[in-house]
Amino acid sequence: MTRQDPASTIYFKLSIDDDDLGFFQECEGLGSQVEIEQRVDGGNNGFVYQLPTRITFSNIRLTRPVTPKSGAVAKWISSIQTGIDRPTAQIVAMRADGSEVARWGLLDVLPVSWQGPSLSPNNPAVAMETLEIAHHGFTDTESDEDD
Q1: Distance CA 147, CA 142 (A)
Q2: Which among 46, 66, 96, 118 would be 20 to 30 A from 54, CA to CA?
Q3: Residue 51 or 126, more confident
Q4: In which order are the strands placed within the sheet that holds 100-106?
Q5: What pLDDT digit, counting tens, does each position of 107-134 carry?
Q6: Residue 82 half-sphere exposure, CB side, CA atoms within 13 Å?
Q7: Are 69 and 31 in contact (CB under 8 A)?
Q8: Residue 137 dihedral angles phi and psi, to the nearest 5°
Q9: CA 26, CA 109: separation in Å to the nearest integer?
């Protein structure tokens, strides 16, 4: 088996249920935090119980140059005007050759914000967009490839 460099260029594929929203260059915010409550035991001064209470999940920000798939993002965001449907999502980290590095499944996904490009003839930079999504946790996912 050939090992591939995990530090090679990575891009991220986003799909909402079965809808492909395309590839993104940056993905920030994949994370969670377990809140801990401390309880002391009377008479036991050398020990404090660390009890988990709730888990919170940070919002995820995905950034890319504007592509034809940008319309699919706008369509998904517009769909919440007629009622909130909280689908599942998949974010797949991929190498330039298309091989999968890692996969995250997300529960109850909701678009939080979309920032479109600043379009100006005075600014020759690439037109970028950023999508921010919220979720209620991770699902169990299996990679298509073994380590």
Answers
A1: 11
A2: 46
A3: 51
A4: 19-24, 10-16, 89-95, 100-106, 138-139
A5: 999 999 999 887 778 877 888 999 999 9
A6: 4
A7: no
A8: 140, 175
A9: 18
- In one-letter notation, the amino acid at residue 101 is V
- pLDDT tens string 58-72: 999 999 999 999 999
Structure-block tokens of residue 13 = 């594929």
Mean of all residue pLDDT scores within the chain = 87
Token pair for 78: 């517009």
Beta strands in 25-108, from DSSP E residues, in sequence order = 26-28, 32-41, 44-57, 60-65, 89-95, 100-106
- Give the SS3 label for residue 62: strand
Q: For residue 47, what are its two tokens?
A: 């020990």
pLDDT at position 145, please?
46
pTM given for the model:
0.81
Q: Which CATH class is domain 10-139?
A: mainly beta
The two tokens of residue 120 are 């100006």
How far is 75 from 89, CA to CA, in rounded Å? 16
Nearest-angstrom CA–CA distance, 111 and 61: 10
Would you tell me how many other CB atoms lie within 10 Å of the CB of residue 134? 17
